Amino acid sequence: MREEAVPVKKSFNKLLTENCVAIPTNGYYEWATEEFTGNKNKYRFYEKGEDTLYIAGLYRTFYNRGWSIRERFIILTTKANTSAKTYHDRMPVLLKKDEIADWVSGRDPMAYLSREPFAVESELTIADTGEMNTVNSL
């Protein structure tokens, strides 16, 4: 979900103050096409020096007719910063570990949605081997 759409969609107003979630991951992936060959390469983005990258999201709990619970979440995206825009024009809204409590409490969520994300590192994933090679250190 695009961060700029969240405040204007009525269905997300309550979620933005009461249902914020931090999604822990070891990184996220983008595909980039080589200009001359047309080959697609998979790049993993992560926070340098950290084992976990936290992505801002919103969640909702659904109850169906049988009273079973289904929980779903969406990842919020924003315009890519300089460390990611070579690969894609969007990227997840990122959180530092010490920002998680504020984000999930719903305190001033717009402060997180309107800022430029911090820089991330990228690694080329070699498809046949799953091996990672650092190709960009910003």
Care to describe what's here?
It contains three helices and ten strands; from the N terminus they run αββββββββααββ. The chain is globular, with a radius of gyration of 17 Å. Mean pLDDT is 81; it is low at 132-138. The two termini are 26 Å apart. The protein has helices at 10-18, 100-105, 109-113; strands at residues 20-25, 28-33, 40-46, 53-63, 69-75, 77-79, 90-92, 94-95, 121-125, 132-136. With 138 residues, the protein is mainly beta. The chain is 14% helix and 40% strand. The protein has a single domain, classed as hypothetical protein yedk fold. The strands form three sheets. Strands 1, 4, 5 and 8 form a four-stranded antiparallel sheet that branches. A four-stranded antiparallel sheet has the order 2-3-9-10, with no helix packed on it. Strands 6-7 form a two-stranded antiparallel sheet.
Task: List key phrases describing it.
138 residues; mainly beta; single chain; hypothetical protein yedk fold; 4-stranded antiparallel beta sheet; disordered C terminus
Please report the distance between the alpha carbons of the first and last residues: 26 Å
CATH topology: hypothetical protein yedk fold
> Average pLDDT, to the nearest integer?
81
Structural class by sheet pairing and helices: mainly beta
How many domains make up the coordinates? Answer: 1
Enumerate how many helices there are, as a single number: 3
Low-confidence stretches: 132-138
CATH superfamily: SOS response associated peptidase-like
Percent helix: 10-25%
Q: Measured on Cα atoms, how large is the radius of gyration?
A: 17 Å
The CATH class is identified as Alpha Beta
Q: Characterize the overall form.
A: globular
Largest sheet: 4 strands, antiparallel
CATH architecture: Alpha-Beta Complex
Share of β-strand residues: 35-45%
- Please provide the count of β strands: 10
Order of helices and strands: HEEEEEEEEHHEE
